[in-house]
Write a structure and sequence with these properties.
The protein is an all-alpha fold. Helices cover about 40% and strands about 0% of the residues. It is extended, with a radius of gyration of 16 Å.
């Protein structure tokens, strides 16, 4: 996967400016995780950056073949009411 341009200039991909990061957990089998860590080291980036880049590349490939995906709706982020 080719690297995306990085304003930081350290060889690592930077987060897009348009959105705050969303923190998530990904379930992945151990062999895939360990090979992914090796691949991330080869590219001199974090495993998280590798995963983000892979998802972005998948989105680009899908949209190139099928057209744009619909704009996602953001969940309401209001805290629950305390009674």
């Amino acid at each position: 996967m080719p690297k995306e341009p990085n304003a930081a200039g350290r060889g690592r991909t930077s987060a897009p400016d348009k959105a705050k990061p969303v923190f998530t957990q990904v379930r992945i089998d151990e062999e895939t995780f360990l090979k992914g860590k090796i691949l991330a080291a080869v590219y001199d980036e974090s495993f998280n950056s590798l995963m983000v880049r892979a998802v972005r590349n998948e989105i680009r490939a899908y949209e190139a073949e099928h057209g744009p995906l619909p704009d996602p709706t953001k969940p309401d982020r209001q805290p629950p009411a305390l009674n």
